[in-house]
Write a structure and sequence with these properties.
Elements lengths: L1 H50 L1 H10 L3 E6 L4 E4 L1 H7 L19 H4 L8 H6 L7 E7 L4 E10 L7 E8 L1 H27 L5 H12 L7 E9 L5 E10 L12 E3 L4 H8 L4 E4 L5 H8 L5 E8 L4 E9 L8 H24 L13
Antiparallel strand pairs: 1-2, 1-5, 3-4, 4-5, 6-7, 6-11, 7-8, 9-10, 10-11
């Protein structure tokens, strides 16, 4: 009986050992299977990398732009120096390791894009070899880029994609400058048309400041007329002004402009020069007075008639600074000359009328 119990116990122990070994073998088998799968994937990636190595050389040498190579699952395979410099602006340098990471989970967020609406998603959803391109503006670095997604289809190996980002900031700014210049020319044409008609002078001047107020990034436009104090000192009086409908501002205390407070302006006007720029760069006495008016940048242009310096026209930018190009300044001088000529013609035709102070505010 005892021997029978011993044999039964031994049998049970043997079965337990066999079960444990079987379980261990099963786990080892699963591990080996996973390892083989991983190894196969690595081999596939190596084959992909090997197959496009020559392409890489051509791609990286051909493009002077930022270039990223993505596999068929949009994992980052490689990127050139330009791309590293660009993306390093979005990442902490300690964490700047993007190779091997998925495009959707890394760089694309920093480009400020929703993946569903991107060219990457459009290309992925198509079966062909069509390239997709789009202009984007990155406000955090104030740059314009033309981005492209180019699919490269391979018969023997997996397809891959080339992402290209070309910095077009210079081109875009020149384009925007041309657009602004064309709009300013259209404004000048509108002013010429108004001044060519013998209308009421007050209505005419109101229309002039209204038209000039449509210039991009201008919050206030105004015209001042020169006058003489009883003591013989020259000052200027605001006769018309226009305010942007989207900019709230109380009435200016500078309804009367004293050249004593702005002697530099008088020197510039005597030479028929424009005073233009950011208020931050102006002399302290001017900066103090202009900042009270919430002005960030300003452009004032003397108005000359054939007789003398009649006054000036000015443009205030209060919500954001405005950069005036050389061509825009030249066009503003032409505008001021047209206004001065129109005022002189009106005087010759209607010396019985006077310009009354009535501000315009739409």
């Amino acid at each position: 009986m005892i021997n029978l119990l011993r044999k039964s116990k031994t049998s049970i122990l043997n079965n337990e050992e066999k079960y444990k070994k079987s379980k261990e073998l099963e786990e080892v088998s699963e591990y080996i299977e996973k390892l083989n799968d991983l190894n196969n994937k690595i081999e596939e990636k190596e084959i992909l990398i090997s197959s496009v190595q020559e392409d890489y050389k051509k791609i990286f040498n051909l493009f002077s732009d930022a270039v990223v190579i993505l596999d068929d699952e949009l994992n980052i395979v490689d990127l050139n120096k330009k791309a590293q410099i660009l993306f390093s602006k979005f990442f902490d340098r300690k964490e700047f390791v993007v190779i091997g990471k998925n495009w959707k989970d890394t760089v694309i967020d920093f480009l400020g894009k929703n993946f569903e609406n991107t060219i990457e998603n459009i290309v992925l959803s198509k079966d062909g070899n069509e390239e997709e391109s789009r202009e984007i503006y990155l406000s955090h670095i104030n740059k314009y880029y033309l981005i492209s997604m180019i699919p490269v289809k391979k018969k023997t190996v997996s397809s891959y994609y080339i992402f290209v980002a070309r910095d077009i900031t210079g081109i875009k700014k020149r384009e925007l400058d041309l657009i602004r210049k064309q709009k300013l020319i259209n404004n000048i044409d509108g002013i010429t048309d108004v001044l060519s008609k013998n209308l009421d002078i007050n209505y005419t001047m109101e229309k002039v400041v209204e038209i000039l107020g449509q210039i991009e990034n201008v919050d206030m436009c105004y015209i001042y007329k020169n006058c003489l104090h009883n003591d013989g000192n020259l000052y200027a009086e605001k006769i018309k002004d226009w305010k942007s409908p989207s900019f709230y501002k109380t009435d200016s205390y500078l309804d009367t402009f004293s050249y004593k407070d702005f002697p530099r302006w008088m020197e510039y006007f005597d030479l028929n020069h424009i005073v233009c720029g950011d208020v931050d760069g102006f002399p302290k006495n001017e900066k103090k007075l202009l900042e009270k008016e919430q002005i960030k940048s300003i452009c004032v242009v003397p108005i000359y008639t054939p007789i003398d310096l009649w006054g000036f026209v000015g443009f205030d930018s209060c919500r954001q600074k405005r950069y005036w190009t050389f061509d825009e300044e030249k066009l503003l001088k032409i505008t001021a000359n047209i206004i001065g000529s129109g005022i002189n013609q009106w005087k010759l035709r209607n010396n019985h009328e006077t310009i009354t102070k009535r501000c315009i505010n739409f």
